[in-house]
Amino acid sequence: MVMEYTEIPNITQKVSRIGLGTWAIGGSLWGGADEKQSIETILEALNQGINLIDTAPGYGKGASEETVGKAIKQSGKRDKVVIATKFGLNQETQNVFRDSRKQSIQKEIEDSLRRLQIEAIDLYQVHWPDPTTPLSETAEYLHELLHQGKIKAIGVSNFTVAQMEEFRKYAPLHVLQTPFNIFESDGQKELLPYCQKYGIATLGYSSLCRGLLSGKMNKDRQFKGDDLRKGMDPKFQEPQFSEYIAAADAFKQLAAKNNHPLDAFAVRWVLDRGINIALWGARKPEQIKDVAGVMGWQLEKSDFEAVDRILKDTLKHSVGNEFMAPPIRK
């Protein structure tokens, strides 16, 4: 397979246009995860040419970072892997809240470096905007970490254009990570043009929309344990769930006409809409077997039009991903 590569400002090596998303590998809010299987998934991603691994302390209270660290060490390929992680969620009490104060980042970065077993983080991202902390405080400290060599590139996640504008007054901004998939693509209206204008690379997360676009979901699917799809995510509750499954089934038929599995079609859609890097979430090796199917082709204008028609015809109760936003610090 020939992987497509792109660039992230301030990172010297080329970066694969598909990155591995490791939220589910943290286990929490996904009904648990098996560490051995998770490590095998990361190693398989590296074998497929994926060289960007995206994680966060918020994924299983550090469990995802620890698993990524073990896998990268086992692979012996640290110098070939771009490790992206985040900060800004205070998890020291049972009530998690957004916290991007300098004092909080100082502790978080040391914890992340230790869990990941690395000396520097390639891409360090604000997980969620923290309106109770001045953006100047967060950005200036990240700029300091950049000068110290503890991080190589600065990113923000879930930010608006206005928030990025303010952030850039105090520090360079290299990456925006934003939700982006066939069902959640509001970012193409303002965020993508802004990032393209100012040379900010874009990472689209939830490319498969929590499995809805995996090609394996049906309306009889039962979710176990603390899986967020069991009650937290409104897309997986009726009447929305049946509508999203109907749309996914129609996309599956559309993809099959072009001899592609739905997951590969959905990720190709993300890339061809202008996202630089699409994050493909997985916790089992078989969940990334179709990565090769994303490469070597592009969607036609008629494909985009067909996708838009299906969305219009099937989704009468469309919802966003607002449920993900963590509480603001009191």
Note the topology.
Layout: E1 5-6, E2 15-16, E3 18-21, H1 35-47, E4 52-54, H2 63-75, E5 82-87, E6 89-90, E7 97-98, H3 102-116, E8 121-126, H4 135-148, E9 151-157, H5 161-167, E10 175-179, H6 191-198, E11 201-205, H7 240-257, H8 262-272, E12 277-281, H9 301-314
Q: Report the strand count.
A: 12
Q: What percentage of residues falls in helices of 4 or more residues?
A: 25-40%
Largest sheet: 8 strands, parallel, barrel
Query: Given this structure, which CATH class is correct?
Result: Alpha Beta
The CATH architecture name reads Alpha-Beta Barrel
Query: Would you identify the regions where 5 or more consecutive residues have pLDDT less than 50?
Result: none
Order of helices and strands: EEEHEHEEEHEHEHEHEHHEH
What overall form do the CA principal axes indicate? globular
How far apart the termini lie comes to 50 Å
Radius of gyration from the CA trace? 19 Å
Q: Kindly identify the CATH topology.
A: TIM Barrel
Average of the residue pLDDT scores: 95
Structural class: alpha/beta
Number of domains: 1
The CATH homologous superfamily corresponds to NADP-dependent oxidoreductase domain
What is the spatial order of strands in the main beta sheet?
Answer: 3-4-5-8-9-10-11-12
Please work out how many helical segments DSSP would assign: 9
